[in-house]
Design goal:
Shape: rod-shaped
Oligomer: single chain
Structural class: alpha/beta
Radius of gyration: 47 Å
Number of strands: 12
Largest sheet: 8 strands, mixed
Length: about 600
Amino acid sequence: MALSEQQIQQLNAQCNKLPIAKLVDYIDKGFVRFPDDLSALSEDRKNAIAAILNSRPNPQEQAEWRAAESAASNLSGLELDELRSRLATVKAYQDKWDASRPVGNHVDDAPALIERIKEQIKTKIGDIEESDWQAVDQDSVESLIKHKEKYPDTCHLDEIDRRVWTLLKQIFDTVEAADKYLGYFPDGLCAAEAREAKVCYDEWDAVKQQYDLIATSEFIKSHPLSPFGDEAEELFRMLKADEVQGMVELQGNYPIENLLYYLDNGIFTEEELIEQKVATSESIQILKNLERIKNDLPDVNAEIAKCRKVCADKHTDVFLFGIPSTGKTCILMGLIGCTGIDVDTVRAGGPYSSALDQYLKAGLTIGQTPKDFVATIEAEITDGNKKHLLNLVEMSGEDFAFKIADNENGKISFEDMGNGATRLLCNNNRKVFFIIVDPTARVVAFNHLVESEEGSYLIRKNVNQRVILKRMVDLLKQPENKDILKKVEAINIIVTKSDTLGSEEERDQKALQHFRDNYENIIAPLTALCREFDINRDNGGRPKLYTFSLGQFYVGGIYKYSDRDAMKLVQVLRSNTETFSSGGFGDKLKKVFN
């Protein structure tokens, strides 16, 4: 029974005279609060009472713990409100005594009781809730939240959490969706993602606008929890596919530094590039060591300077006509590397041919040849005990485009066009002409060197392949050039870069269709010209079309050489050139004595 205020005042006035045991008894029975109701106690008596109280369990704590234990027992059959009331009793005990923790307290035992009651509540809610849950509209945020509010301990809490976040992202812009979600679930399963969404919303919008592989990759790395993760990964896959397509289409023109950056930063793996057939492990190693490899190769221009621009007599001159960057040098390289033909590395353009052979072995092509470039390489093809003696003639595509086919001085006779390739055309050797067509380009743009009295300067020029080839055919038709045509055995077409046309089985047909679709304006006049001068006599005057590739090309312009197409051209030359007897033993002996 509690004491009245007057009784407490009287007790306080006598507290220093009463036995300490009596005061402790009053405190245990709850008649007075210690030390608040005993303010008059001396410091010594106050410390003595505190020592007694602290040395034994607190009777009030003990009583409340017994009540908590009772609340957590005999739970089956209880209604939900009663279970929640009992849970509140145990939590109240834990909250009250957690800070002071008197001797013999049971604070650390309280969580087990709380979990026991919670499990019973969940079971009870589950039984009651299930019919309501079946009626919840899974596509309505409002319906899901109402269910959560009705059943705070719902067993579907995680499901509601994730579904609400998904729906909000569909309904609102990212920032508003994140704000609404965090209002419902400040510590929810998707809270970190929602907060990240608010941070990176503007950045992702900028990345989408850029449509850039590197920017997308950096965004994914920087924001692993971003709600835009799936969208970013999908964009990343699309951009990688586009980049691979660019590698296929550009090949040698694809920026090597881009590829190496992608590999170094994990945007592409070597295995991915190999699987996409845009690289091999060997070609990747070449690109990684490209500078060192190039430093070990000869300077092509220096080797060209060592060459003599002459065509040996009694040889067949094989001319390659084409605009810049169509692949004339690649054809020459393919022939040099082919076992069916023996190329002289000493006479005439021998140093140039030797340099090309080294580039071929390294899997590299050379850059555009100089403006006034002409190379003549002596070669021979063995045919039994006879030989086909050849002069392989390559000229600058720029010279062909501007000095011959579209010459600025308006000359129509090759003989009047000055030194260089045109002068070689006018010698007395038999000839074979190949007109080179690049199927990957209609117009080629390059820097053209113009020389004038004021000096030299570069201008940007566009060369239309169709126009230039038609003018070349029209030049050949001029009466002034008939003496040259009388010496021509064959005029044929080579479609280069045929590896871009698909598989080996379909390249010839695709190349033929490409030529018909784009160069029909030269077919009839060229055929008529050949018939007039008895050229291509084995085919009724009609030019033949051949495809050519140095082999399988990979990104960066690295290739694995194959002499498959070069061997076809060797057979063409064998069929269209004169042979000379290599002589028997007697002839060889006579040569020794001579």
